[in-house]
Design a protein that fits this description.
iron-sulfur; elongated; 2 domains; four-stranded antiparallel beta sheet; alpha+beta; about 40% helix; Rieske Iron-sulfur Protein
C-alpha cells in the first residue's frame, strides 16, 4: 500500500475526528412510556391476578409432584417406570414454570421500569454511597408493590416455600434405603452363561465372527426373565462388546491369555469414567470410543485408556467355547464394572 501524499493532512483529519467525538452529545435516556398497569388501576389488578395465578400453578405443580411421588410407584415394568417419571416430571415442570413466568410477568407489569444511570466510580464506594445504595434497594422493594398486595405476597411466599419440597422429599425418603454396595461388584454373568446378541437373544458361535466383527452382547437368560424389571437393571450392568481381532496383534498378559478365544475378546460396554455406553469402534486402530466425553480404549491392548478422562481400562469378560461351539463366559468380570464408587479399591 502506498504512503499518503500529504501526511500532515492525515494527522489533521485524525485530530478533527477526535475533536468531533469530544463534542458528541449525550443522548440521555429514552422517554419513559407508561404501561397500562401504570395508567389504569384495573389493569394493575389484572396483572396482579395473573401473577397470583401463575404462583398458584407452581403450588399445584409442587403438590402434584409430591402426590405422584408417593402414589405412583413403579411396579417392575417399563410402562410403570415411564408413567411414574412422567408424572414426577410434569409436576416439577409446572412448579418451576409457574415461579419463572410469575417472576417475569411481575417484573414486566408491576415493578418499576424506570431506567436509571450513574457515573462510574471506584470499586468500593464511599460509606455514604453504600448507604444510598441500600436505600435504593429498599426503594426497589417498595416499587415491587408486594407490601400493599397481600394476596400476591401470600402466593409468592407459598410457592417459594413449597417448591424445595420437590427436591427435599425424594432425598429424605431415600434415607434408610438399600445401601448394599456388594451388588455393584458383580453382574449376572456366571460360568457357562452363553453369549447372546442384544437385543434378539440369538446365541453366538465363534465361527459366526470374522476378523473386524463387533457384536453387542448380553447374557443368555430365559425369555420370561427378560421381561422382568429385575432383568432390565441387571442387563444394564452386564452389557458387553464382543470384538474379533487378528490374534497376532493382541497384547495379553500371562494371566489373561486364556480369557480370549482365537482373537475374540469381550469387554464391558460401561465406560469407567461416568458410565456411558462405549460403542464406537474404529476397526483400523482397534480403538473403542465413548461418545460422551471421548475416552478412548485400545481393544488390542487390554482395553487400556489411550485418551480422555477415564482412568481405568474396561473390565474384561473371560470367555471360551463350549462343546457345541457357542461362546460362553468363563466367569463374571474380574472387577466391578463402570465408574468409581465409595469403598471401591480400584
Amino acid at each position: 500500500m502506498s504512503e499518503p501524499k500529504n501526511p500532515e493532512n492525515a494527522v489533521d483529519v485524525a485530530g478533527t475526528g477526535a475533536s468531533e467525538l469530544d463534542r458528541f452529545p449525550d443522548p440521555g435516556m429514552h422517554e419513559h412510556k407508561l404501561r397500562m398497569a401504570d395508567k389504569d388501576p384495573k389493569a394493575a389488578k389484572r396483572a396482579e391476578a395473573q401473577v397470583v395465578i401463575l404462583f398458584v400453578i407452581s403450588i399445584v405443580g409442587t403438590i402434584g409432584m409430591l402426590i405422584a411421588y408417593f402414589a405412583i410407584r413403579p411396579e417392575g415394568t417399563t410402562a410403570s417406570v415411564r408413567n411414574a417419571n412422567l408424572a414426577l416430571g410434569l409436576g416439577m415442570f409446572f412448579a418451576l414454570m409457574g415461579i419463572g413466568l410469575a417472576a417475569v410477568h411481575w417484573a414486566k407489569t408491576l415493578m418499576s421500569d424506570h431506567e436509571k444511570s450513574e457515573d462510574r466510580h471506584a470499586q468500593r464506594s464511599a460509606d455514604d454511597v453504600r448507604e444510598a445504595a441500600v436505600a435504593v434497594l429498599k426503594e426497589g422493594a417498595a416499587d415491587s408493590g408486594i407490601a400493599r398486595r397481600p394476596v400476591l405476597q401470600g402466593a409468592v411466599v407459598t410457592a417459594l416455600a413449597l417448591f424445595p419440597l420437590t427436591i427435599v422429599v425424594p432425598l429424605i425418603s431415600s434415607v434408610g434405603g438399600d445401601w448394599d454396595i456388594s451388588k455393584f461388584k458383580h453382574t449376572i454373568w456366571k460360568p457357562g452363561t452363553r453369549l447372546a446378541i442384544d437385543p434378539t437373544g440369538r446365541l453366538i458361535k465363534a465361527s459366526d465372527l470374522t476378523i473386524g466383527s463387533v457384536v453387542h452382547v448380553i447374557p443368555d437368560v430365559p425369555a420370561e426373565e427378560r421381561r422382568s424389571h429385575h432383568w432390565i437393571a441387571e442387563k444394564a450392568k452386564a452389557i458387553v462388546l464382543l470384538v474379533r481381532l487378528d490374534p497376532a496383534i493382541l497384547k495379553e498378559t500371562e494371566e489373561r491369555k486364556s480369557w480370549s478365544y482365537d482373537g475374540i475378546v469381550a469387554y464391558s460396554k460401561i465406560c469407567t469414567h461416568v458410565g456411558c455406553p462405549v460403542a464406537l469402534y474404529e476397526q483400523q486402530t482397534h480403538h473403542l470410543l465413548c461418545p460422551c466425553h471421548q475416552s478412548t480404549f485400545d481393544v488390542a491392548d487390554g482395553a487400556k485408556v489411550v485418551f480422555g478422562p477415564a482412568k481405568r481400562p474396561l473390565p474384561q469378560l473371560p470367555i471360551m467355547v463350549d462343546d457345541e461351539g457357542y461362546l460362553v463366559a468363563q466367569d463374571d468380570f474380574d472387577e466391578p464394572v463402570g465408574p468409581s464408587y465409595w469403598e471401591r479399591l480400584k
